[in-house]
Design goal:
The protein is α+β, with helices and mostly antiparallel strands. The protein has a single domain, classed as Electron Transport, Fmn-binding Protein, Chain A (Pnp Oxidase, Chain A), CATH 2.30.110. It contains three helices and eight strands, in the order αββββαββαββ. Strands 1, 2, 3, 4, 5, 6, 7 and 8 form an eight-stranded antiparallel β-sheet that branches. The longest helix is centred in the first third of the chain and has 10 residues. The termini are close together. 26% of the residues are buried.
C-alpha cells in the first residue's frame, strides 16, 4: 500500500474512472491520504463523481510518472467520520479554501479491495493488493 501511496503522491495528478449508467467517466484528481492504515481520496458531495461512486463504488485509478504507470482497480467506501475528513484536509490545506470537514459537502472515500499494478516498458509488472 505504501508504494501505491508514494507513487500517487509524487505523481500529484491521477485519473479516477467511474461510471454513469453505462458511460465511463474519467477526471483528474490530486488528493491521496493515508489514514488509519487505509488510502483515501476526497471530493465534494455536490459533484457528479460523488453520485457516480454512491451508485457504483467500483472504480479505477491511473497515474503516470517517470516512465512508469499505475493502475488501481478498487472499491471506494465512504467514510463519513469527521476525523477522516479532517485528516484529508489537514494533508491538503489548500483545499480549505473550498472545503471544510464540517461543511456537509466534503466527502472522503477509503480505497478498498485494491488490486494495483505498476507497469513500465523496462520491467516486469509489480502487483500490490491491499
Amino acid at each position: 500500500m505504501k508504494r501505491v501511496y508514494d507513487f500517487l503522491k509524487s505523481a500529484e495528478t491521477y485519473y479516477l474512472a467511474t461510471t454513469e449508467g453505462d458511460q465511463p467517466r474519467v477526471r483528474p484528481f490530486g488528493t491521496i491520504n493515508e489514514f488509519e492504515g487505509k488510502l483515501y481520496i476526497q471530493t465534494g458531495k455536490s459533484k457528479p463523481v460523488s453520485e457516480q461512486i454512491h451508485k457504483n463504488p467500483k472504480a479505477e485509478i491511473c497515474a503516470f510518472k517517470d516512465g512508469t504507470w499505475l493502475r488501481v482497480e478498487c472499491t471506494l467506501r465512504e467514510d463519513d467520520r469527521r476525523e477522516a475528513r479532517k485528516a484529508m484536509l489537514d494533508a491538503y490545506p489548500d483545499l480549505r479554501a473550498m472545503y471544510n470537514e464540517d461543511d456537509g459537502n466534503t466527502e472522503v472515500f477509503a480505497i478498498e479491495n485494491a488490486f494495483a499494478v505498476f507497469y513500465s516498458f523496462i520491467a516486469e509488472p509489480v502487483i500490490v493488493k491491499f
